[in-house]
Amino acid sequence: MPEARNxxxxxxxxxxxxxxxxxxxxxxxxxxxxxxxxxxxxxxxFILYIFDLSIxxxxxxxxxxxxxxxxxxxxxxxxxxxxxLHHFCAGVRHLFMDAHxxxxxxxxxxxxxxxxxxxxxxxxLVALKLFGDF
Amino acid sequence: MDNNIGPKRLVVGAHYGLRDWLAxxxxxxxxxxFTIVLLVLFLGAGEFSYESWAGLxxxxxxxxxxxxxxxxxxxxxxxxxxxxxxxxxxxxxxxLLLQVLTILWLVGCAGWTVQILWRV
Lengths: 134, 120
Hints:
The complex is a heterodimer.
Chain A: H1 25-42, H2 44-56, H3 58-67, H4 71-98, H5 105-131
Helix pairs in contact in A: 1-4, 1-5, 2-3, 4-5
Chain B: H1 17-44, H2 50-58, H3 60-88, H4 92-117
């Protein structure tokens, strides 16, 4: 690629530039894919703790029901649920693109919209389930 | 066949790019299939109780499926988190430290997962 030699070397934008950059919808899906992944990575011990309580015994299961009734724990569970839903949907979009489906500018914008169209209502449903009474 | 000698020797990259890219996709598919199976079993079980939940993981096939899924998760997370460090952390020493901590974090989680799964 002779033409590649003339292009400038890739560098990250400066951190103060982040808010001035107007990302397209697929760019927002992309950065949220990373943010949600990092979030789940950092909260792995919390996830395993909940899983541990849920499965070890009837006593720990009952304890979890009390633990999970705290508003902050609910908030963490909601955050993780959104992270999982977004990461899942954006990941499926990635797999389609790997198969060369929806690579055009329009196709990519359309699938980015679909990601939010699926993940946000489902996350709202989880929020209702956690904080509402149904 | 071997172009990787003499002046043609590749001196950059560790050649894990394609392999890890592929592993990230394969592990993602394992997790997606597990998610769907779990949802189907979970929604099909009716009333959610400790017995039905723990009973799921007490079956050998499901325990192993969950185990394989969690291990896929940890490999997947390793590839993704390493990408984050490679993109944003430029000083080699700091990046190396973060990568080592990431591995320790994930291996620790893997150990805990085994402990949890084989208790039921």
